[in-house]
Design goal:
Keywords: DNA-binding. The chain has helices at 14-31, 40-51, 66-75, 82-93, 116-123, 135-138, 142-149, 198-222, 253-264, 271-279, 286-300, 318-327, 331-337, 349-369, 372-379, 388-396, 403-418, and strands at 99-104, 109-114, 153-156, 169-176, 183-191, 230-232, 240-242, 249-250, 304-305, 310-311, 316-317. The protein is of the alpha+beta class. Strand 6 and strand 7 form a beta hairpin.
């Protein structure tokens, strides 16, 4: 197949392909073996699902409903694009055979629209607004997998990891914020086998690109597209700086540290203070720092000033976005904006301090909220999966005797043993 993101080769028999994939799925969930009829993108997704302990009979859980859902999606950036989605995909969603859906960056469904009869059928598997459709919660599916791999993709019948979804075929494409280039969600069309045609994938890709272009126009109209650079450094070792003058600039590790520190100190830093924030007590000559700053100035031009060292226009950072959401009491927004630890491999003392302070603020807010959906979102991330305190609070919020509580208790025991807080004989 020339395009690995398409579900079927041109001229392929859909029924025959369904049978092949269904047998391969059964083989995987029973023995862990990947058959030759499974596309690489699907095989990798199944492996992620198995690693996340997704049960093949799972049905999506509901995170938000009623007033909470209305408030959340009305404030989401994709709310401004819904008229465009409806214009481009609305006729498809009204034809009695398809659904248009839009989810946020965490796979939480915001809108699911279409013919009422098709919607009622989809409700049986909780394909509804407010439900969580990320891979980690409901297995391989087009919007969840599109978010996981950051690429448009089709998922065909039995390629879905969870059996309740295998009657459907879907195509989805991720949508990015044109200023920060961060994922903000995905747009999807869901229906029958005929959606495995190349046109459906091309359609959602074109719709996602149109949405990003429209958001860029809105930013320009708001006055937010120019003047203020954007610096993203959460969950990545090399920061991405967008000055609004072209393609974003990926900075090297040391330059990323300098940019993050200067963004956090708009008043500027002397060479001595910046060296301390970068190198700590290590013996580093001033020439070393000046050389790094000279190379960085070659990349940033007049944006980088000296005496003291500072950024002429202070960028808005994703670190700021998390802190601002926390200050506003918007814990779901803070959690959505937190893409991982700040420059996770950095050992620069100033960066390490910023990283720990932000993570601690976010964790304290999560623990104080005791909201199961938010706690579960944290422990499903690479940076939260071993957070014993959060797992324990999550366990305390689950009714005893349920399958979910039993699994949580097992995970808590496992972590306590790993941290030397419990021996195998104690339980």
């Amino acid at each position: 197949m020339l395009n690995p993101w398409l579900a079927l080769e041109t001229g392929a028999d859909a029924a025959e392909r369904t049978g092949q994939v269904r047998r391969a799925h059964e083989q995987f969930v029973t023995r862990g073996a990947i058959g030759s009829h499974v596309r690489d993108v699907v095989a990798e997704s199944w492996q992620r699902c198995a690693g996340a302990s997704v049960e093949p009979e799972s049905v999506a859980g509901i995170d938000l409903a009623d007033a909470d859902l209305d408030a959340y999606r009305s404030s989401h950036p994709l709310a401004r694009v819904m008229p465009l989605f409806r214009e481009l995909l609305g006729t498809i969603a009204d034809d009695g055979a398809h659904l248009l859906s839009v989810c946020d960056e965490n796979g939480r469904m915001l809108w699911v629209e279409g013919h009422s009869q098709v919607q009622r059928h989809a409700e049986r598997m909780n394909f509804v607004p407010g439900a969580r459709w990320s891979e980690r919660y409901i297995g391989t599916n087009a919007p969840g997998t599109a978010l996981a791999v950051d690429h448009a993709v089709q998922i065909f019948t039995a390629e879905h990891y969870c059996r309740p979804v295998q009657a459907w075929t879907c195509a989805a494409a991720p949508v990015h914020d044109p200023r920060t280039h961060r994922l903000i969600g995905a747009v999807d069309i869901t229906g029958g086998d005929h959606l495995a045609a190349p046109q459906s994938l091309a359609l959602v890709q074109a719709t996602a690109r149109a949405a990003e272009a429209y958001l860029a126009e809105l930013h320009a109209a708001d006055g937010t597209s120019a003047g203020t650079p954007v610096l993203n450094a959460l969950g990545c070792d090399e920061a991405l700086l967008d000055t609004g003058g072209g393609a974003p600039l990926r900075l090297g590790r040391r330059h990323s540290e300098i940019a993050v520190l200067l963004a956090a100190h708009p008043e500027g830093l002397t060479g001595e203070r910046l060296a301390l924030e970068l190198y700590g007590e290590r013996s580093v000559t001033p020439v070393t720092l000046r050389a790094e700053l000279s190379r960085l100035r070659g990349l940033l031009g007049p944006l980088l000033e000296s005496r003291p060292y500072r950024l002429r226009t202070v960028p808005h950072t994703d670190h700021d976005a998390v802190g601002e959401a926390l200050a506003a009491g918007d814990l779901p927004g803070a959690l959505a904006a937190y893409r991982g630890p700040l420059l996770p491999l950095s050992e620069a003392p100033g960066v390490v301090r910023m990283r720990r302070l932000l993570e601690d603020r976010l964790r304290r807010a999560l623990l104080a909220s005791r909201e199961p959906a938010l706690l579960e979102e944290w422990v499903r991330t690479p940076w939260g999966e071993d957070d014993l305190e959060v797992w324990e609070v999550l366990l305390s919020r689950r009714p005893g005797g349920t399958a979910g509580a039993t699994a949580l208790a097992g995970r808590v025991r496992e972590l306590r043993r790993a941290y030397g807080l419990e021996t195998p004989a104690e339980h």
